[in-house]
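User: Sequence in, structure out. Go.
Assistant: Echoing your sequence, followed by the structure tokens.
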Amino acid sequence: MFTHHYVEGLVVSETAKGESDKIFNIYTREFGKISLLGKSIRKEKSKLKMNLQLFSHVKVGFIEGRVYNTITDVSSVSVFKNAKNHLGKLSLFYRISELMLSFMKGEEKDEKVFTFLLNAFQKINETELSVKELELFYCFFSFQILRLLGYEPRIQSCILCRKGIKKECYFDSKRGGVVCNKCFKKGRIGVYLEDVRVLSFFLNLNIKDFPQSAKAPVHVVDEFLSFVSESAYLKK
């Protein structure tokens, strides 16, 4: 006898399978990231098709199978229509989903991650964001989601000499933290930061208070993502 589950989740990716099926990656409140099979969902007469859209908030019923867990029914909570009609916001959804899939390989329930992801999708959908502000939001999201996953950069003091840093410093992606000017001169490794408080700002910011003007440390985000990717790989 098959076990039937009902979950709430966000659809973060979809992949065609065979002639008419799709595999959906859904980040759920109950199980974390799960992969579900939508049988015959690409057919015109599919009853699941309208309610199961990419980057949507859904409630899904599925049964466990030997190879795939198969979707039985779906109800839509929100399709985030405003965001999907905006090219920049839609692109941001893709970047966020790619980031989520990169660092979440298997099922692992995390209520905080689910809530943050849901709030992020809602914020993007409801807020007017310029090109610069979209990049800013991506930086904010990246730092916050990595912090929730346990990969928070060390920014309060130099990772080499342990002395406090007040302003100028360098971000060392190899060690996952900042180094002071004095230590940087010895090794010459790191990305220059005019003010370390920029990183502190992103790490401590609440999504409800997300501002629409700040200097986005895109180069540091890229460096840090590389560091975390390598660290996560070594832990496997």
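User: And one key feature?
Assistant: Residues 232-236 have pLDDT under 50 and may be disordered.
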